[in-house]
């Protein structure tokens, strides 16, 4: 065999960082089916199904619900560039790295960005949005639902209620939460939401599911200036995906056929399981994992409401962050370190999609205990795995 053209041979990893998570074999099989044209009538019905199932996962009746052809960041950017015009006021809630990024993206639209912050690991009390909007109105309130850098959940419904009472729209980054915990777009009154394919939905990275409420669409169609981004212009995107009225589809860009197959299969898996069962499975994995950590003498960083799918662990004194992660990777287990101020201080462990299950949780606890003990960490051997197993033995 010609060595110069070696076959692609990536390692088999257990992906327990903040995404991508492991991909269900059903999704990989869907991706191996034939590529057809992006305006083929057969593909148009696949698009319609995908939109319909995405509405179910987002718990919304919003027609304007599609996967954007790029990763989660593009969906967040799409919300900002479509909803904001130069000179508009936007209030951004910041509880970590991804909130900061939202503020950065918003500022690039020429909008006037006002921020509300909370200490890392906590959420913003909803009243603070009310104080800020009472002080000065805004067109949009934007915030992260599941802050992946700190493991904190920001409650959305009360903030949405406040935003609407003060005449503002609300846009959320639910990149980490969608498919792993409730994101109840209509019940909460969310006007725009953006997520990704590779975290709790468990498909490969490459798509960003977004949804826009009729109220958001009214604001978008009433813009004075053109959306700064041609690629992310929601009006152009829905000329291709279908605006819900005319049934003609206008070419915008070539739909990433294979990724849309992947998204369709990921949504099918989620809906077959049932959303509430899926949320409960993620919750249970978190409880088992947290019980295991506690039995090992480890503590969680997050002080506010903790996310089930993203566990942020304090690195114990005297333990080398990189050495532990290297040791785990040697056993084909990936976890992640901290961002910015939390670098070297925490590990971030994702329990997403197929990994929110007993086997991955127990495998990681065993391997983490071993890696820590090798560094001189003292704990009762086997206690972590036993504690996690005990949680799984309890009825749900
Ligand atoms: C992962 C993540 C993103 C970025 O998504 P990509 O798919 O990597 O572009 C944005 N926001 C949050 C909260 C995330 O966790």
Structural overview:
Helix content is 41%, strand content 14%. With 396 residues, the chain is α/β, with parallel strands linked by helices. The protein folds into two domains: 25-272, Type I PLP-dependent aspartate aminotransferase-like (Major domain) (Aspartate Aminotransferase, domain 2, 3-Layer(aba) Sandwich), CATH 3.40.640; 275-394, Aspartate Aminotransferase, domain 1. It has a seven-stranded mixed β-sheet with strand order 2-10-9-8-5-3-4, with helices on both faces. Strands 11-14-13 form a three-stranded antiparallel β-sheet, covered by helices on one side. Strands 1-12 form a two-stranded parallel ribbon. Helix 4 links the parallel strand 3 and strand 4. It is globular, with a radius of gyration of 22 Å. The N and C termini lie far apart (54 Å). Pyridoxal-5'-phosphate binds at residues 18-19, 71-73, 76, 98, 144, 148, 173, 175-176, 196, 205. Pyridoxal-5'-phosphate is lined by residues 18-19, 71-73, 76, 98, 144, 148, 173, 175-176, 196, 205.
Secondary-structure blueprint:
Elements: E1 14-15, H1 25-31, H2 41-58, E2 64-68, H3 72-83, E3 89-94, H4 97-107, E4 112-117, H5 127-135, E5 140-144, E6 146-147, E7 152-153, H6 157-165, E8 169-173, H7 185-188, E9 192-194, E10 208-212, H8 214-221, H9 234-241, H10 257-273, H11 275-295, E11 310-314, H12 321-330, E12 333-334, E13 336-337, E14 346-350, H13 358-374, H14 383-393
Parallel strand pairs: 1-12, 3-4, 3-5, 5-8, 8-9
Antiparallel strand pairs: 2-10, 6-7, 9-10, 11-14, 13-14
Keywords: Aminotransferase, Pyridoxal phosphate, Transferase
Pfam family, one: Aminotran_5
Organism: Symbiobacterium thermophilum (strain DSM 24528 / JCM 14929 / IAM 14863 / T)
């Amino acid at each position: 065999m010609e060595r110069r053209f070696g076959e692609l041979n990536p390692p088999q990893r257990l992906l327990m960082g903040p995404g991508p998570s492991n991909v269900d074999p059903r999704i990989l099989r869907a991706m191996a089916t034939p590529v057809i044209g992006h305006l083929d009538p057969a593909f148009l019905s696949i698009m319609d199904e995908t939109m319909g199932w995405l509405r179910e996962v987002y718990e919304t009746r919003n027609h304007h619900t599609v996967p954007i052809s790029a990763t989660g960041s593009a969906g967040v950017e799409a919300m900002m560039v479509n909803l904001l015009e130069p000179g508009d006021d936007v209030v951004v809630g910041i509880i970590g790295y991804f909130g900061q990024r939202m503020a950065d993206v918003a500022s690039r639209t020429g909008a006037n960005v006002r921020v509300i912050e909370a200490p890392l690991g906590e959420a913003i009390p909803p009243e603070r949005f009310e104080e800020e909007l009472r002080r000065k109105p805004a067109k949009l309130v934007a915030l992260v639902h599941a802050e992946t850098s700190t493991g904190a959940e920001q409650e959305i419904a009360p903030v949405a209620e406040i935003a609407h009472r003060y005449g503002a729209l609300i846009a959320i980054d639910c990149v980490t939460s969608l498919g792993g915990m409730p994101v109840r777009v209509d019940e909460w009154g969310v006007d725009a939401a953006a997520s990704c394919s590779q975290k709790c939905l468990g498909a490969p990275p490459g798509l960003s599911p977004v949804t826009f409420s009729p109220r958001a669409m009214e604001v978008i169609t009433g813009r004075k200036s053109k959306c700064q981004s041609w690629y992310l212009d929601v009006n152009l995107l829905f000329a291709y995906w279908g605006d819900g009225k005319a049934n003609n589809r206008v070419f915008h860009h070539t739909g990433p056929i294979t990724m849309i197959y992947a998204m369709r299969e990921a949504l099918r898996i989620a809906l077959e399981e049932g959303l509430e069962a899926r949320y409960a499975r993620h919750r249970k994995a978190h409880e088992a994992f947290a019980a295991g950590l506690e039995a090992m003498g480890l503590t969680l960083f997050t002080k506010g409401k903790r996310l089930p799918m993203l566990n942020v662990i304090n690195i114990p004194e005297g333990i080398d962050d990189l050495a532990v992660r290297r040791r785990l990777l040697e056993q084909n287990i990936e976890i992640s370190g901290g961002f910015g101020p939390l670098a070297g201080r925490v590990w971030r462990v994702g329990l997403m999609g197929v990994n929110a299950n007993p086997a991955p949780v127990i495998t990681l606890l065993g391997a983490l205990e071993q890696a820590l003990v090798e560094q001189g960490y003292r704990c009762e051997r086997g206690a972590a795995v036993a504690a996690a197993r005990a949680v799984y033995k309890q009825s749900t």
